[in-house]
Inverse folding.
């Protein structure tokens, strides 16, 4: 199952919810695929069900999401931006975050062979 939609509209709570569900699923899938590698790589299983819709806990959520992406980037041998640098309450930052994050997830899917 693919992370779809991996973008959404600024300040659209329904879109945020759909993004959060697909995104959380894909991170769990990455954890499972890393565990199935030889040698197995054990990643912490995070709960990312509320990234865009997280309200006051968003900063913490974004920080643990960033930690997960740093581990994944190391495994996949890719570089990605620091996703915590974006202020998701600002429209420009929001769309930049989505764009960079979309590219990173595409690269990770490619690495893990998710088509
Ligand atoms: Zn992510």
């Amino acid at each position: 199952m693919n992370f779809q939609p991996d973008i959404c509209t600024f300040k659209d709570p329904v879109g945020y919810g759909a993004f959060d569900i697909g995104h959380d699923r894909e991170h769990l899938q990455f954890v499972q695929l890393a565990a199935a590698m030889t040698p197995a790589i054990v990643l912490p299983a995070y709960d990312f069900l509320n990234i865009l819709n997280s309200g006051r806990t968003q900063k913490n959520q974004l920080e643990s999401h960033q930690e997960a992406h740093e581990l994944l980037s190391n495994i996949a041998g890719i570089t990605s931006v620091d996703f915590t640098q974006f202020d998701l309450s600002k429209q420009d930052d929001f769309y930049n975050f989505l764009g960079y994050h979309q590219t990173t997830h595409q690269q990770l899917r490619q690495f893990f062979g998710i088509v």
Remarks:
- The chain is about 55% helix and 0% strand.
- The radius of gyration is 14 Å.
- Helices lie at 13-35, 58-76, 91-112.
